[in-house]
Amino acid sequence: MTDPYAVPDMDELLAQVRKQTEEVQRIQRTVEAMEVKAHSRQNEVTVTLRGDGRFTSIDIDPRAIREYDARNLSEIVLEAVNAGLQKLAEASSAKFAPVIAAAKDV
What we know:
Keywords: Coiled coil, DNA-binding. InterPro entries: YbaB-like_sf, YbaB/EbfC. Residues 10-37 form a coiled coil. This protein is an alpha+beta fold. It has a single domain (8-103), classed as Ybab, Chain: A. 62% of the residues lie in helices and 16% in strands. It has a 3-stranded antiparallel sheet. The protein is rod-shaped and about 75 Å long.
């Protein structure tokens, strides 16, 4: 049984903090390097964005340009953009999940 009044080893605690900080930074670099693609419901619009949140492309099917007016097309683009942001958030959360779980165990 461990002594509840024992003083923790500060060097050990600092080493754990450094290790976790390095892991978070490594994961952050991985997330920033990710590339995510998402689509509107009927695939009229495809967006690509990086882990840092910057969009690198928005591709619109030429048939959609002929078929929809500007207002409807803008809604379809927003749908794809929001799907991309959601997908990026989910992927980022999945990458950080092990670190968050480890922190809860401490």
